[in-house]
Amino acid sequence: MRKKREFIEGAFYHVTSRTNDKIRVFENNLGRKIMLITLQDAKDKFNFKLTNFCVMPTHIHLLIKPEGSANLSSIMHWLKLQTAKRWNFTHGSTDHLWGHRYFARPIRDYTEYEHVMNYIDENPVKAGLAAAPNEWKASGAFYGYHGLELIDSASIFYAPSEYPADIFLLTEMPFAISCLFPPAQLDHVKRYYGVYAEKLCQLYDTILKIPLLKNMSNIVNHNAYLHYYTGTADYLIYGYDGQDTMYARVSMNVFPAETVYQEISLAKLLNNPYVKLDLSWKAL
Hints:
CATH superfamily of the largest domain: Transposase IS200-like
CATH topology of the largest domain: Alpha-Beta Plaits
Oligomer: single chain
Helix content: 25-40%
Order of helices and strands: EHEEHEHHHHHEEEEHE
């Protein structure tokens, strides 16, 4: 028989949950970012304090205190379900992400609380993943060391209206990408940057292959382009100065035969509310 969990109203809990068969789901940045995003969304959905956490390759640690009507079972059920859905969606799979049960132990006094705090911090160090707790980016130790302020001095994450642009970014948004994205699309990608990290890295690699605007007479030899489109035109970008000017082949949907090459102001193009950057970049 499974041992019954002990729940104490108003207590903090040390929670751990392992992946199915100890598969290294969170070994790379993409997996860890999916976990962090889902943890933030759980914070927005449920009422709880989170004073420490650590995302390890095969498991997670949380130091958590449910508040109000929230209960630990509902929080953990939702967290594991949503993480599995997002991980499977981004990897095109239907795998069982988590093991069947999570472990939860109530914290009974301050001494035990401090012990658990330190235990969670030291996990990546003991596993040989970091030289110091604050070097492991998917952890409360990293957030605290880098001055990410806490809600009520007890929560790792900001409220939805307060978090800075890089709260979900374990790496900074590349400058070229921040210039190329329309504002609304950029705002969405900033929030879910982790989920689309692989595609954005691919996009960034493509941008580096696009020549800087110099002599554009030899365009037939360009080995890559990006695709912008609006409700009336397609823009195939062959050159970009990294700031505002692009050199593109423009095809008007209303006059498809009239395809011309133009230098285009990026700022002017982004003012079009229907513009979208196709993340499925093209290679010639």
